[in-house]
Amino acid sequence: MRASKIELAVVLAAGQGIRLGALGEEIPKGMIRVGEQPILEESIGRLRRAGIRRVLVVTGHLAGQLAVLAQRAPAVVELAHNERYEKGGSLSSLACALERVREDFLLLESDLVYEQRAIDVLTAQEPGNSVLVSGETHAGDEVWVETTGAAGGHRLVAMSKQRDRLGPHVLGELTGITRLRAAAVPALQACAQALAARGGPADYEDALVALARVAPVQVHRIADLVWAEIDTPGMLERVRREVYPAIARAERR
Predict the structure, then answer these.
(1) What's phi and psi for 103, nearest 5 deg?
(2) What angle do the packed helices 39-49 and 116-123 form, to 10 degrees?
(3) For residue 96, what pLDDT is reported?
(4) Which of 37, 38, 138, 213 might form a disulfide with 31, Cβ 3.0–4.6 angstroms?
(5) Cα gap 159→178, rounded to integer Å
(6) Number of neighbours of residue 136 by Cβ within 10 angstroms
(7) Measured in Å, how far apart are the chain's first and last C-alpha atoms?
(8) 158 inside domain
């Protein structure tokens, strides 16, 4: 079966960046600059190079600063504002986006820096739901992904920041980049509604694990992928000092 052409990406960019302290109060995480452009704008550039034609950015915290992305690329970037971003968590942002989704799509977090091949690998896959993981980065605050193991085709079972709570088949670290089928949207929406009814914030990863209980979610591993997320000042410093230069070297090769 050939890989289906995928042209839509959803980027969750509503978070408040609380752990970044003063910087998080001043700027959305996706608008942090490590190179010449904000990291989210660089991410959009990578998506476009992989054939993505439409990028839906879900805003919340300091939404006005993200509007510049749509102004710079009005034919590509559109915005959806999550009114519940302060209390609903990232799952409420995903639910906000799903109201506009009618096709297969990539799902990304806004605070990522990564190699181009992360996107290229997922867009080249056969149609299906697929979570991208890496080898160990030792970055801190990792989300570990448990699968059924090689005999089960590495299908998603669970995720946790506490590795010892998972089973024996932990394949790697969640990168925050996922491919999802349009057919998965109703199940994701049902999960979002159920968790919202309980009250309190919920993470979009909860919906991915719930989806895996009713539909196959493959886990694809790029062991040596260079990438990072930016949640704390320490992570930002690591990105500037180590990760961003390593991405530049890898992509020159």
Answers:
(1) -150, 170
(2) 40
(3) 96
(4) 38
(5) 14
(6) 10
(7) 30
(8) yes
At which residue do the structure tokens 């806004």 appear?
110
> pTM for this structure?
0.96
- Give pLDDT, residue 2: 44
In a domain, 1, yes or no: no
CB 106 within 8 A of CB 12: no
Q: Tell me: the pLDDT tens digits for 80-134?
A: 999 999 889 999 999 999 999 999 999 999 999 999 999 999 999 888 999 999 9
- Alpha-carbon distance of 109 to 153, in angstroms, equals 26
**pLDDT for residue 4:** 60
CATH of the domain at 151: 3.90.550.10
pLDDT value of residue 108: 98
Domain that holds residue 237: 8-252
DSSP three-state, residue 198: helix
pLDDT at 226: 97
